[in-house]
Amino acid sequence: MAWNEPGNNDKDPWKNKGGKNQGPPDLDELLNDLGKKVTGIFGGKTTKGGPGKSFSSIGVSILLIIGLVVYAFSGFYTIKEAEQGLVLRFGQYSGTVEPGLRWKWTFIDRVIPVDMQSTREMPSSGFMLTQDENVVNVEMQIQYRVVDARNYIFSVTNADDSLKQSLDSALRYVVGHAKMDDILTSGREIIRQSVWEELDKIIEPYQLGLIIVDVNFKDARPPNEVKDAFDDAIAAQEDEVRFLREAEAYARGIEPQARGRVKRIEQEALAYKSQIVLDAQGEVAKFEKLLPEYLAAPEVTRQRLYIATMENVYSNTSKVMVDVEGGNNMMYLPLDKIIQQQSTNTRANSPQSYVPVSQPSQNSAPSTSDRADRFNSGRN
């Protein structure tokens, strides 16, 4: 028969313990016994139901105070300067905290720190099909940072993974609508800008809380099987650009020289014109001053003009006249010096090489002596 069957039985294990009829132990009695034992250890005397009971109340209070202090200190946390904290209360978003020392309810609040200032990088690469049905390997890298911590954490499951997929989609879309020559050579900047714009359009509806800082076009190359042919094509295009630049530089250098040469010739022509006009005016002035002298003494003036003319003629010739009559001495003449001096005088009196020199004609102006003779004959 079980000890707890109805009826009179004394088989309860909590009764007759130690030969006495007693019930299960009480919590207060356990605490009192513990207090008595502790008091006995420290030499204190206890009375029944008095000091033991007060000691148990004090112990519970001390434990409660210690627990509260530990709980209070466990709620302090720090948000770094470059971060923002998202506070979740029972799993629900309740606010954002700024950098500094903060406090939260332990086991109630949860804080998620988010880096807001660091610039992050994300690469993307792969073989892609172009518009002209060629395969090209493109490598691109973007730089981004977080601008909205709440959207970055709660808008999608993983904002970084969503951005990665969006980048791959934008890159393949742009490369698929471009030609291979543009991707490999002159259209790289256009491809970069197009990928940036397309990526912004893709991530805008998802509100990822991210902003694209920069897009870098790292490399674009054809498959290894056709790499040599494309290298030759690129080298030819670069040579074409170089030759065009050299031609433009030559044109910019030779054109100012030609203009300067033309300007110099114009200035020399104007100077020669002025010289001829001034010489003519001088001859006229000389004739006007000589005419009264000739009218006053025609013979003397004629002889003077003849002698001056002959002196001018003989000074420009290489002939030397020597009178050796009545002498036996050998005369040394520095003919080389005389000829050299005559050549120097001839070059000095001749006009510039580019100015045409006309031969005197029947209609040319007469010399001073001829004009004087005709004037004198007219008077006679």
TrEMBL record:
Subcellular localization(s) per the UniProt record: Membrane
A Pfam family annotated for this UniProt entry: HflK_N
Segments crossing the lipid bilayer: 58-79
Ranges for region Disordered: 1-28, 343-380
Domain Band, first and last residues per copy: 74-234
Matching InterPro entries: Band-7_stomatin-like, Band_7, HflK, Membrane_HflK_N
BP-aspect Gene Ontology terms: proteolysis
Biased composition (Low complexity): 349-364
Swiss-Prot/TrEMBL keywords: Hydrolase, Membrane, Protease, Transmembrane, Transmembrane helix
Ranges of compositional bias, category Basic and acidic residues: 370-380
Keyword Cytoplasm among record annotations: no
Zinc-finger as UniProt keyword: no
Coiled-coil ranges per UniProt: none
Single GO term (MF): peptidase activity
PANTHER family: AT06885P-RELATED, BAND 7 PROTEIN-RELATED
Subunit-level organization: HflC and HflK may interact to form a multimeric complex.
Similarity comment: Belongs to the band 7/mec-2 family. HflK subfamily.
Function: HflC and HflK could encode or regulate a protease.
Protein's name in the database: Protein HflK
